[in-house]
Design a protein that fits this description.
This protein is of the alpha/beta class and 535 residues long. Helices cover 30% and strands 14% of the residues. The relative contact order is 0.10.
């Protein structure tokens, strides 16, 4: 990122030329702003001033640093960003964290965030919504067009923030078991980045017209898991006031013994004995670690990276044996999609043409719990006699994987008496090109952001999709404003209880339902739930 002098011509040029995967509105907004000589909005931050741009009435600042380059402090808690002189351009998204995905290879200088706001320094005390991206703990960034916060700001008069942070080995490789106190931060460095980002938000909320006392964290998949973990981290206490998770749970963290075993595998791969040598290994070289086979899983699966029960930054498992006491007063929404695993397993044509004879072996590998496949198949054929083998496969893998973690968290919160609402997304574009994936993992992202027309949303641009985005997006906005997701466009959404297990089913006929898929829940309750990566 360059530090520019206060030069309006330079900012006008960058505004017209830097798109950085920005989102649908920018392409139209940039030349209009430039043609009218619109002044750049200037935010005054702890380290200096930044210049953003205005897109359809919303001030947008991209690539704001909230921490320093992490390379000199690899595996350690990050330092604060270096102050700058003059006005720094905040027109382009910051680099993603190092990763092997399509957003890679990334950079260790990755601690950046993006802000959307209707106004600056106006005393508006708007709710602040901070989105944590998915991609497990391995991939992704806060700069995906689906996370563009402009529509939420325009619809709800709120401030939206998205965040990049360290991932995979850079954020979660636990080396304290081998290298001692010098590596005390290593297993949870990525989580500590998020704490630092939330501290930045608290410090700057008023500058962006927001309320530091009303911060909602929301996230999907790995983002939801990161939120569940933050709820149990003492350093995060008081930094957010509501939590909304979508298909992302973290019931248990990696144990220190298992995490140390993975660290040994990394050292062995590089032929090293001293963890200190990993501090200076080239970034691209260290990324090889994500492709190593995990020692704890039967199938050939990449090395697990995620938060670690390190007795310091994370002293307890996030949601076991109970919900985190420090977060009992935080209202929480826990949601999932009805057909999660069609996103992962629905790209193999063979999974849509399974026979009953081959189904047990497929379930053995993919349901992620130690339940006899024959027991699962028999139960599903009794519950849903019209299901084909493929429909049983997708339903059982969904129920035995991420949904099971959501149930565990909901039950823990209900026992705690904490204010919690559950939802299940059944809606999907029945006539769309991805209809056979149904309500797949990630489908709720463009709906809550009201970004159904963004590239990659896969919701379709129908009136039905717009109504569903209205319903879900307004629920998020109501929750952020009041700590309760109810609004006039929904049936009464009651909090979750163990007696009834109330769940808002989002569909064309959205409804409150007691214990949807109760038979599936009881089936998988026969065996203990062990979060992948724990052991």
């Amino acid at each position: 990122m360059t530090i520019a002098p206060d030069d309006p011509q330079r900012r006008q040029f960058l505004r017209a030329s830097t798109l950085c995967s920005l989102g649908a509105g920018l392409a139209a907004a940039v030349p209009v702003a430039a043609a009218h000589g619109q002044a750049s909005p200037i935010a005054r931050l702890r380290s200096g001033r930044v210049a953003g741009q205005t897109e359809q009435g919303i001030h947008v600042f991209r690539g704001i640093p909230y921490g320093a380059d992490t390379a000199p402090r690899r595996f350690q808690q990050a330092a604060l960003e270096t102050p700058w002189h003059g006005v720094r351009d905040a027109l382009a998204c910051g680099p993603a964290a190092p990763q092997a995905s399509g957003e890679g290879p990334g950079s260790e200088d990755c601690l950046y965030l993006n802000v959307w706001t209707p106004a600056l320094r106006d005393g508006g005390r708007r709710p602040v919504l901070v989105y944590l991206h998915g991609g497990a703990y391995n991939n992704g960034s806060g700069s995906d067009p689906l996370y563009d916060g402009g529509n939420l700001c325009r619809r709800g008069d709120v401030v939206v923030v998205t965040v990049n942070h360290r991932l995979n080995a850079f954020g979660y490789l636990y080396l304290a078991g081998l290298g001692g106190e010098a590596f005390a931060d290593s297993g949870n460095a990525g989580q500590l980045d998020l704490v630092q980002a939330l501290q930045w938000v608290r410090q700057h909320a008023a500058e962006f017209g927001g309320d530091a006392g009303n911060v909602t964290v929301f996230g999907q998949s790995g983002g939801g898991a990161k939120i569940a973990t933050l709820m149990a981290m003492p350093a995060a206490k008081g930094l957010f006031h509501r939590a909304w998770t979508m298909s992302g749970q973290q019931v248990t963290a990696a144990g220190p013994r298992a995490a140390t075993q993975r660290a040994r595998r990394v050292l062995e791969h590089f032929g090293l004995r001293d963890p200190q040598a990993l501090r200076t290994l080239p970034m691209e070289k260290l990324l090889e670690a994500v492709k190593l086979r995990d020692p704890s899983w039967v199938e050939d699966t990449g090395l697990y990276f995620g938060p670690v029960l390190d007795a310091h930054h994370l002293p307890v498992h996030p949601f076991w044996p109970q919900a985190p006491a420090q977060s009992a007063g935080i209202p929480m929404v826990i949601g999932n999609t009805h057909d999660e695993t069609r996103a992962f397993l629905g790209h193999d044509e063979r999974n849509f043409a399974l026979g009953w004879d081959e189904l047990p072996a497929k379930l053995e590998k993919e349901q992620f719990v130690d339940l006899l496949p024959s027991v699962a198949v028999t139960a599903y054929r009794r519950m849903y006699p019209h299901y084909t083998p493929s429909e049983v496969f997708f339903a059982a893998t969904t129920a035995g994987r991420s949904w099971r973690g959501a149930v565990e968290e909901l039950e823990a919160r209900a026992r705690q008496g904490a204010p919690t609402w559950a939802y299940q997304l059944d809606w999907y574009d029945r006539g769309g090109e991805v209809a056979r994936l149904r309500a797949f993992h990630t489908l709720d992202i463009p709906l809550v952001f009201h970004n159904t027309r963004q590239p990659g949303s896969r919701t379709g641009a129908t009136a039905s999709a717009t109504r569903m985005a209205d319903a879900m997006g307004d629920a998020l906005l109501a929750f952020a404003r009041h700590g309760d997701p109810n609004h006039g466009g929904l049936p009464r959404w009651e909090p979750y209880s163990l007696q009834r297990r109330q769940t808002l089913v989002f569909d064309d006929d959205s409804r409150l339902q007691d214990d949807p898929r109760g038979g599936e829940r009881r089936l998988y309750a026969q065996v203990p739930f062990v979060q992948r990566g724990t052991a």
